[in-house]
UniProtKB/TrEMBL annotation:
Name listed for the protein in its UniProt record: Methyltransferase family protein
SUPFAM superfamilies for the chain: S-adenosyl-L-methionine-dependent methyltransferases
An example Gene Ontology molecular-function term: S-adenosylmethionine-dependent methyltransferase activity
Example GO biological process: methylation
Keyword Transferase assigned: yes
CDD domains: AdoMet_MTases
Length: 271
């Protein structure tokens, strides 16, 4: 699969997973330009710190695995808190930027290429696993959750931060329609992280992943329990993070994000 002028092109031997990998490889160049991806203020950084500590506690040298680490945004937050961090991603352009960012900031974070459904990590290796905006893209979440269970130490904790980007309620659909009309009329700027055509590719991928009808928190929680995780908790209070991010968006974008079903889910591997 190749990426040309913001378009993902694939031959007959390429499948959905290849399209997902190519999409995020294409997004790497502009990924850190988007609020909601990179962090632009200390207010947002501290909001993320509090959310992470709420569910995972302080780092204290514990080993953390950041899955689909992208350019390393979450890895740096975990490093801030004293975790020993390894980031895994399967898009080489993302890894290149993550390594460069860590080097420029003097961070000792390891970034490696790997598939989140087959990490090749050793059994019982990590104290915590964290993911942000990964689960909605999974082709086989049952396989992924079993893999994450395997590499967690007994008693280790998984933290998922994600959202339902499909089944919008009436208010969210209305706001998005207004926003699209204003963008079309040149009255609002589109997301700088999306090159021409990438939004359509995103929608196409979203329609074919496992959670094509929406990654609802209760569905993910049920799959985690089926995989053997314990103490599964859903936290829908991400307002502090969203409030900090909202300063970088126009009114309609901030309103739309606030209406979405976004959440954090924590779960533990049995001891």
């Amino acid at each position: 699969m190749t990426v040309m002028d913001g378009q993902v092109a694939g031959g007959e031997n390429y499948g959905l997973r290849d399209e997902i990998k190519a999409y995020w490889s294409a997004r790497a160049e502009s990924f850190d330009q988007s609020p909601g991806h990179e962090i632009f203020t200390e207010t947002e950084r501290h909001a993320w710190h509090r959310l992470i500590v709420k569910h995972l506690g302080a780092g204290e040298g514990r080993r953390a695995l950041d899955l689909a680490s992208g350019t390393g945004v979450i890895s740096h937050l975990m490093d801030d808190l004293g975790f020993e961090v390894t980031g895994l991603d399967w898009a080489e352009p993302m890894l290149e930027r993550a390594r460069a960012k860590a080097k420029s900031r003097g961070r000792m974070i390891s970034f490696r290429m790997a598939d989140v459904e087959n990490t090749t990590e050793l059994d019982d290796t990590y104290d915590v696993i964290v993911t942000r905006h990964l689960v909605w893209t999974l082709v086989d979440p049952e396989k992924a959750f079993a893999e994450w269970m395997r590499v967690l130490k007994p008693g280790g904790t998984l933290l998922i931060v994600d959202g339902d980007f499909v089944s919008a309620n009436f208010a969210e659909r209305l706001v998005k329609r207004v926003m699209k009309l204003l963008e079309g009329g040149g009255l609002l700027k589109a997301d700088p992280g999306h090159a021409p055509g990438m939004a359509e590719i995103h929608s196409s991928i979203l329609s074919r992943v496992y959670f094509s009808k929406g990654a609802r928190a209760d569905k993910i929680a049920a799959l985690l329990k089926n995989a053997g995780f314990e103490h599964v908790q859903i936290d829908e209070n991400l307002r502090e993070v969203h409030k900090a991010q909202a300063h970088h968006w126009n009114y309609f974008k901030a309103l739309s994000r606030g209406l979405q079903h976004r959440y954090a889910i924590s779960a533990c591997k049995p001891r």
